[in-house]
Amino acid sequence: MGGENITDDNLASLGVETVGKTESDSRKLKIPKESLEKYIELAKTKLTKGFWNEIVGPEEILFIFRFKDGHIEEYILSLENEAQISKLCTQFNNDPPEKTANVYKYITNNDFYHDFMLEHYANMINRQ
User: Fold this and answer.
1) For strand 17-21 and strand 61-66, is the pairing parallel, antiparallel, or unpaired?
2) How many CB atoms lie within 10 A of CB 50?
3) Residue 35 carries which DSSP code?
4) N or C: which terminus of the chain has fewer CB atoms within 10 Å of its end residue's CB?
């Protein structure tokens, strides 16, 4: 969702692979490490207003939020900014705050990320 302005050709030119689609027709992408910076720039310029993109890697999770007024806020998920990211996920996706409070768990609910998140972030998902 929010990637309607990003074409398959845009992604292919970066070596980004579409490995599937969600029920809502959003692409599930595998981004090579060497293409990550260019993909981030592409997302920042072409992401639809009012949407976000998360990039989940083994060492960090990046959120790019594009507000309805067009401005961008970018966060690398940490305990220090998790509450802010949770508020933005609630705002952008109309999910209740209790669903987004643990952003690591929230991401794990996405079937595309589920196993990867459990492998790399289990301690953050299951924390009390």
Assistant:
1) unpaired
2) 15
3) G
4) C
Instruction: Transcribe 46-114 into DSSP letters.
Output: HSPTTEEEEEE-SS-EEEEEE-TTS-EEEEE--TTTHHHHHHHHHHHH---HHHHSSHHHHHHTSTTTH
User: What pLDDT tens digit does each residue of the chain (128 aa) get?
Assistant: 677 778 889 999 999 998 888 777 778 899 999 999 999 999 999 999 999 999 999 999 999 999 999 999 999 999 999 999 999 999 999 999 999 999 999 999 988 899 999 999 999 999 87
pTM of the model: 0.90
